[in-house]
Amino acid sequence: MADSHHRIEIDGRSLTIEQVLQVAFHPETQVVIAEKAIPGIKRAAQAVADFIAQGKIAYGITTGFGAFKDKLIPRDEVEQLQQNILLSHAVGVGCPLEPPATRAMMLIRANTLSRGHSGIRLETLELLLELLNRNILPVIPEQGSLGASGDLAPLAHMSLPLIGMGEVVFEGKVIPSAEVLKQAGLQPVRLSAKEGLALTNGTTLMTALGVLTVSRAEALLHTANLAAALGLEAQSGTLWAYDERVHSHRPQAFQRETASEMRAALEGTQLSRPDDPTNIQDAYTLRCVPQVHGAALNAINYAKQVVITELNSVTDNPLLFFDNHDQVTIISGGNFHGEPLALALDFLSLALTDLGNMSERRVAKLIDNCSPQGTYPPFLTEHGGTNSGFMLLQYTAAALTSQNKTLVHPASADSIPSSGNVEDHVSMGANSAIHAGKIANNLTTILSIELMAAAQAIDFRLQKAPESRLGRGTAKAYSLVRTIVPFFEKDAYYKPALTSLTELVRKGAFSKLI
Question: What confidence score (pLDDT) does residue 51 get?
Fold first, then answer.
């Protein structure tokens, strides 16, 4: 797959997370179908046309959908069937997806269809990419997918503009699709057999949201490690719990990796606690960072591998397969079922929730009345009473942590049969993906509050020992916090500083320091 800063070729086999992120966040990036993929796309489309001409029966091509799988469709109604699937399935509700998620969906769906097993025509696929490349983005409501038979409702909304229906966002405005197509000099298509089904059957919403959340999760994990290291220095913690010998005797790879990262962040620190036989260990949220954060890293990596596999998987139904003589076999299967993603994204949600649990407890210790050896005042303010200090920042962290605990209920544990009980087990993977994204949002703020609190506590320590040096990594993190957040000598309007710092965390600025 050829790839440059402004151009990506897709072939259904080699799309990467990095390329999805490039397209999602950089609308100037142009996407084209690789030349080597075009013959396969045309072959599958021709096979569908031949199937219709021969009067053969195949699900979704000459039959209805779902519970109507046994309903034969007259030849002269086959094209209307494909349009009807878009119109009838576009019943999503809730907030529209953000542009990066929409762009990721369009790219991933186009990549899947480029594989040449779906029967979509080249011109239909090229119109989808034309909309993407011109940043004409379908309005896609977030809710409505059961995560089996694919993300039907969201994908129907994504596909409506191809037939001149629905609405799009263009140049910041919501406009009827037909109007924008006319302005752009583009002609809507009339769907051929199988195309409506090919466009709507797939795990595209789950995968797109999964890519965005997994990439954020990696950055949040490294940010959490830095925040914990800063908190250890603020509380005059001990480094012994990160000793390589401890972790070599429990050789969980991600635990050892996290311990190594903590040692690197704290290398050279003069704010840790000297050996003290009366105070030999810290609370779990400091002592067990390698074990807990390492387990979260393991979960993040698992979810990432599932998403990577899904990017280049064929997930619609039925699928067309060709032998060495180009003879086609059409097989109805279940690749649209989102269970692999649902389970992985639920696991990701659990990991991110637990990172928030750890972070909030470290915040609580930083504002506690019992700071180690009086190194900083209660609630991180010198004049408690008149000033509340960081009291309410911990409240916010606690509220978000609690909300995460309600969001983390596994969506994949639920299933409500649909389509006359033909689709009798569904993954609810779209809910898994949506919940994971919300938990990541909450964790972003929780970690920002921890960074604010840790920097405030460290400043109190440095007032008493100004010659003390922070660790190699924590010094960078502290300096980055202080580019946004000042030391607060008294109560102030904290919200602007928190908002700015949260945006910095969201962009991955702290993870880049590792």
Answer: 83
